[in-house]
Amino acid sequence: MRFVEPIRDKEQLDDLTNYLKEHNERDYIMWLIGIHVGIRISDILQLRVKDVRKQTHLKIFEQKTKKYKRVIIPPRLRKEFEQFIKGKKENDYLIASRERTSTGKQRPITRKTAWTNINKAAKAIGYREKIGTHSMRKTFGYHYYKKYHSVGDLMVLFNHSEEATTLRYIGIVQDQLDSNMSNLY
């Protein structure tokens, strides 16, 4: 797996978000969940309409950690969900694939499809850093930290046991190293 970066620049983040909104509503919703809630792609892809319809929080049993997590759905995201899920059934996957199982059942897109679509969108707007599905989670963490400076909150959200791990994960350590080395002499 490649190491990916958060999207640090707000303008580039807005450009990518707007591109996805204009080109693929499903991928746009997936992107918004990632950058507003900061959960892993494996957990995003398992969400169903019933998990968001008339809900104030996402209630997730994390696939990777096997831990229960309850995360607020920010007002902007709730508003987007309302429009996106109109006419959809309770058990429909939120990030549904057009392809069906061999028995005709709906399924979510794959992680590979999510990665491909994010990379296509990033390339279309001229984004040059390494990006992937994990960039959504890292972007959430980066901007949360920049706004609130609360590494403790992020440690809880990301299930990290050390501050250094969280700061390295969201790109803050690299930013500090870059700044210090640029201004050494």
TrEMBL record:
Tagged with keyword Membrane: no
Keyword Membrane attributed: no
Alphabetized InterPro entries for the sequence: DNA_brk_join_enz (IPR011010), Integrase-like_cat_sf (IPR013762), Integrase_catalytic (IPR002104), Tyrosine_recombinase_XerCD (IPR050090)
Pfam families: Phage_integrase
Tyr recombinase domain sequence ranges: 2-182
Top-rank lineage group of the source organism: Bacteria
Keywords: DNA recombination
PROSITE patterns attached to this UniProt entry: TYR_RECOMBINASE
GO MF terms, alphabetically ordered: DNA binding
Annotated GO biological process: DNA integration; DNA recombination
Name recorded for this polypeptide: Phage integrase family protein
Natural source organism: Kurthia zopfii
